[in-house]
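hey m, so remember when u said the tokens were messed up on ur end? i reran from scratch. heres the input so u can diff it against urs
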Amino acid sequence: MATTMSTEVLVIGAGPGGYVAAIRAAQLGKKVLCVEKEKLGGVCLNVGCIPSKALIHAAKEWRTLHTEAAEIGIEVQGARLDFKKTQEWKRGVTTGLTNGIGQLFKANKVDSLFGTATFTGPNAVSVKTASGDVSVTFQHCIVATGSRPIQIPGFAFDGQKVVDSTGALDFETVPRELVVIGGGFIGLEIGAAYAALGSKVTVVEMMDQILPGQDAEIVRIVERRLKKDDVAVFTKAKAKAFGGSHVTIEVDGKEQAIAADKVLVAVGRRPNTDSLALDKAGVKVGEKGLIPINDKAQTNVPHIYAIGDITAGPALAHKASREGLVAAAHLAGDKGAALDYKALPWAVFVEPEIATVGLTEEQAKAKGFDPVVAKFPYAALGRAKSTNATEGFVKIVADKKTDLLLGVHVVGAEASNIIAEAALAIEMGATAKDLALTIHTHPTFPEAIMEAAEGVHGKMIHAANRGTK
């Protein structure tokens, strides 16, 4: 006989969307149960954002020892990479954060249940656990089941030679020759890290540039660094098959073989909605398995919410978290809670980093603005020079008529950190002049944002004002 449970709010999935939603709903006075299939923290904390950034950090330290350190007079001899220890450290980072979520659940009185949930009706699910089925009834539900990697023909995941991002982050040794299929941010982040650690890396991308959809000027900076790290990049290329030691690709109608002892397939992710039996709850599922939602994160069934990778838009952990906070607030009675993606930042942790928020020049034009664009180079930035990190720039897009800040795009050291200032400015409706008038600590990387903002009005101090466009 199945065990039965009842809760006010059921959250399905404990990733960065689900666990945040569960904690906030509990803080707002609701009885909350969170069902998780595997580990608290989901993909992000266990096999995604956090472990990948740990690996990237280790790779950056290794690269610095062998290249950049010598440029500033630090000679290093006898350095050795103990990759097993690197992996142990990385796992320690993720374990600590995952355990932390368990403690946060306890502190906020969030109940948890490990198993796989499927809907049996609009107010009930059945959870298959290790000890049997549990029937759960609820008043509100937040679905936060995330996504999984897409597989492609000829490259079935085997967990050994052909892997997804999870497998690539868990290699026991640094690959000799790694082929990365997919030049988006996941493939480039992991591929660039292994290149820094000594792998011969080849990136195969179907589109006409890596990081499709990103500003071409920014991409050129990244391409230059990849070339410096001896990473081969093929664009407008199709990966056709893996023969065990070589990947066959097609470029310009011709086939060629690329040596590989490991293959990372990173061509995108698909939403985890197909096994939820959402039809039994009356929830509509749209194109490609995504669930349509309104600005409250509600599905077509008002008491059932959907957040994160199972909804439209970029698959970003912080987007999922924000959606979780809105869903929790709304179901708890805050009818003014609403989603707003105007200032949704994102970052790519390659070398140098990329971070962006708001509109590009082209997007601004499409929305009817008359954009003014100004750019400040890292090469003119004191902090960048003093840390030997002069690659990159800050680009600001503002409206000519109102001076309203529309977008900020950064490629360079600390981009992922300094973009937060720009996100706050856009969220608050700041103008370029507001940024220019804000006193920035010297010497720091965020000064580049201040200088670029001055450039909107042709008043940069530490770089030539070549006019705006």
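this time it looks ok to me. The chain has a mean pLDDT of 96. if urs says something different then somethings off w ur setup not the seq
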